[in-house]
Amino acid sequence: MNKFKKLILKKNKTKIVSLTAYSKNIASILDNHCDIILVGDSLGSVLYNYKSTREVSLDMMIEHSKSVRMGIKKALMVVDMPYKTYRNSKEALKNAKKIMSKTKCDAVKLEGGKKVYEIIKNLIKNKIPVMGHLGLLPQSDKTFKFKGKKIFERNRILKDASLLEKAGVFSIVLECVETSLAKLVTQNIKVPTIGIGASKYCDGQILVFDDLIGLNPMNYKFVKKYANIRKDISKAVSNYSKDVRKIKFPNNKNSY
Ligand code: KIV
User: Fold this and answer.
1) How buried is 236 (Cβ within 10 angstroms: 0-12 exposed, 13-18 middle, 19+ buried)?
2) 3-class SS at 82?
3) Which CATH architecture has domain 3-225?
4) Burial of 217 (0-12, 13-18, 19+ CB in 10 A)
């Protein structure tokens, strides 16, 4: 059975675990615990301090993905297609093929519903597996607000999810979606939903790794920090600096 079918079969049986990674060493740790590792274009804000993911280029995604690929043996590897790399079917196919061949990833992820329906259909027709992304869309939304308060928004997300399923995506990320809507979407489609700020009712969860370990000093409602890595790093670096200043490091054991 192929890995996408295996993932889809987890729906209603076991929750799907997913995280982002931008480099090899982190990916190799996550690989033992995750079903999906996403090279997210969130790397723009997380690593490069960009104001939005719109500044992330295809080359940046490819270089980080090549690094991540070296750390993954088991998990499905998905790469975000950055802003303005899938404005029409021809452009999307050319860029998705480039991502797939240069990074050897398993699939690409695109943001949007009806607007990208034909584009996604064409990618899948050309044997490029696609993950969808609905709810808050960082590449096009101007403000950071959860989705599903307004009726028109709820109907649109529900319809978009069905459309993406019809187009053939193997799963859909739901970002910052109101709880009852996330539940409804999840019940309404046969492919798994992967939530971020979208309640426990999704078939799986994803977080940005730097948020999970507390490397990112920001606090978001939808994030639970499972470590305070800033504190640990600070302690280690402080000990190192003390040792260097007191000429305790390097000692004879660390010297040739
Ligand atoms: O870019 C990213 O990291 C993402 C996740 C937040 C789902 O798209």
Assistant:
1) exposed
2) coil
3) Alpha-Beta Barrel (3.20)
4) exposed
Dump pLDDT digits (tens) for 193-236.
999 999 999 999 999 999 999 999 999 999 999 999 999 999 99
Give the confidence band of 77 by pLDDT, cuts at 50, 70, 90.
very high
Written as one letter, the residue type at 114 is K
CA of 126 to the centre of ligand 1 (A): 24
Alpha-carbon distance 153 to 77, whole Å? 30
Cβ of 173 below 6 Å from ligand 1: yes
Residue with CA at minimum distance from ligand 1 atom 4: 40
Phi, psi for 113 (deg, rounded to 5):
-115, -105
Q: Two tokens at 214?
A: 């507390």
Q: Where are the domains of the chain?
A: 3-225, 229-256
pLDDT tens digit sequence for 124-156: 999 999 999 999 999 999 888 999 999 999 999
Q: Tell me which residue has its CA closest to atom 3 in ligand 1.
A: 40
Pairwise CA distance, residues 148 & 199, whole Å? 12
Cβ(185)–Cβ(15) below 8 Å: no
- Find the 184 Cα to ligand 1 centroid distance in Å: 22
pLDDT at 242 over 80: yes
